[in-house]
Each structure stands twice: as C-alpha cells, then as structure tokens.
Amino acid sequence: MLILLSAGIYAMSSVEHFDNLSGKLWIAVLSVQAVPYIATLLTLLISIAPNYGKKSKLLAEELDE
C-alpha cells in the first residue's frame, strides 16, 4: 500500500494538470494516508534492529562449536 501511495504521489506530481490547488490537495490527501504505513515500517525496523546483530553473533558462535 505504501508503495502504491508513493507511486500515486509521484505520478500526480509529475503531471502538469495536477499543478493547481485541487491537484495539490489530492497529493496532500495521499501523503496523509501514507503516514500510518510509514510509521508501521519504521516501528518494524526499530523493533528488529536490536535482535539483528545478536542473532548473527549467536549463529556464528553456534557454528564454531
């Protein structure tokens, strides 16, 4: 969904007909709708970041034994 919203924002901003107030409003609406998906992605990345380094070290130690 985030990728589709981003593609829609990019497509609308690159078309000349969306340069008016109505087009800018649509771009703003799509941007607001993308915020929860961005927050979800960032939360996911933050939650797995501490475990990412530990698992690779644990796996390396298990392979050494």
Tally of distinct domains = 1
String of helices and strands:
HH
Query: What value does the average pLDDT take?
Result: 84
Radius of gyration from the alpha-carbon trace, in angstroms: 20 Å
Structural class: mainly alpha
Give the helix tally: 2
Strand percentage: under 5%
Report the sheet with the most strands, covering strand number, pairing sense and barrel closure.
none
Detail the poorly predicted runs: none
Helicity range: over 70%
The count of β-strands is 0
Shape: elongated
- The CA-CA distance between the termini, in Å, is 44 Å
Explain what the structure shows.
- The chain has one domain (2-64).
- It has helices spanning 2-14, 21-64.
- The chain is mainly alpha-helical and 65 residues long.
- The chain has 2 helices and no strands.
Report a brief summary of the structure.
The chain has two helices and no strands.
Topology:
Layout: H1 2-14, H2 21-64
Summary tags:
65 residues, mainly alpha, 2 helices, 0% strand
